[in-house]
Amino acid sequence: MRAISPHQAAVADIGIRHLRAFLVLAEQLSFTQAAASLHTTQPSLTRSIHRLEEALGARLFHRTTRHVRLSESGVLLREELKELLPRLESVLTPRHDIQTLRIGFSWLFPDELLQNAIAGFERTYGVAVDLVRRDERCAGLDEGAVQLAVLRGRQPARGLRTVRIAQEERVAAVSRRSPLARRRSLDWTEFAEHPVMINTVSGATQVRDWPEEARPGTVTLCGGFVEWLELIAEGRGIGVAPDLVMRRNPHPGVRFIPITEAPPMPLWLARPSTGAHPLAIRFMERAVAVRQAAA
């Protein structure tokens, strides 16, 4: 194989950002204005131009303390790039193989938490986000029905890559006919004194979440959120839900009251650990960035 010359190696290190920086500066002839247009700093823009000049072995601009003008080499490069760069950027623009990114959730989607991430993602990638309710442990992610899922409770199942996007407070779900409905709060250890309904399919609270000495003595296992809610409304027992439910009020026969001394409920965004769709990875990155910016 033929050896690459030092000049070829230098040119190979030039990226689209260097060419874009040159073209914007060539049009505006002001480092201040060009840096603002590129959403970068003047030192960063200067480094990009120096890097391009070094790679090409030619001065592209004549600079003084007050003026910037193109050199002869700069004029030639500008004329070439005015046609070539837009075509190159167009070729490299992603052609997504899906029109909709599906995010599964079992119940109570935290739209206030993720709405900024969803709006920014749709605007950036031109792909709609579809929210899919699946009353299942992994909200359809393990079956391939969705590309991402919002999950609650302890660390989700193996085979998933997760990021914790929030922690929610727990509240008690009690029948409005129960004397407990008149309480302002319920202590976490008091659940040992009452029958407790556990949603084993999509619930985020399990018996092991209580300390061993304070675990509920009477437990009824339910097969989903709707069944869990109806049994509580009938007075068969009490349950635990994230505090988001207090703003949604999903059943007129159930009252939700705060719990003291309860461990927080982790909220996860999950995708498959292998074979995840690239857009699912991008959405997860955006959700984390939005969370960090809001912290």
From TrEMBL:
Pfam family of this protein, just one?
Answer: HTH_1
Gene Ontology cellular-component terms for this entry are: protein-DNA complex
Which GO molecular function, any one, fits this protein according to its record? DNA-binding transcription factor activity
Query: What SUPFAM superfamilies does this protein map onto?
Result: Periplasmic binding protein-like II, Winged helix' DNA-binding domain
Instruction: Specify the domain of life of the species encoding this protein.
Output: Bacteria
PROSITE patterns, alphabetized? HTH_LYSR
Q: Which UniProt keywords apply?
A: DNA-binding, Transcription, Transcription regulation
Q: Which family does it belong to?
A: Belongs to the LysR transcriptional regulatory family.
By what name is this protein known? Transcriptional regulator
